[in-house]
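Today's session is about reading a structure prediction critically. Students often jump straight to the picture, but the first step is always the sequence itself: look for stretches that repeat, for charged clusters, for runs of hydrophobic residues. Only then move on to the predicted structure, which in these notes is written as discrete structure tokens rather than atom positions. Here is the chain we will use throughout the hour.
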Amino acid sequence: MHTSDTAAAKIAVFQECGIEVAITPSDMADALIRAAKRLGAKLA
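Below is the predicted structure for this chain, in token form.
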């Protein structure tokens, strides 16, 4: 396995590309809120 194959490396690439990442399942709602704020969207 290459270091680029690790979850941490893949998460880092997503974040560098501006993609919001939920690190854990319990972080999913917060990740959605962060992404919406970044895009200026309102969640109802």
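Discussion point for the tutorial: The radius of gyration is 12 Å.
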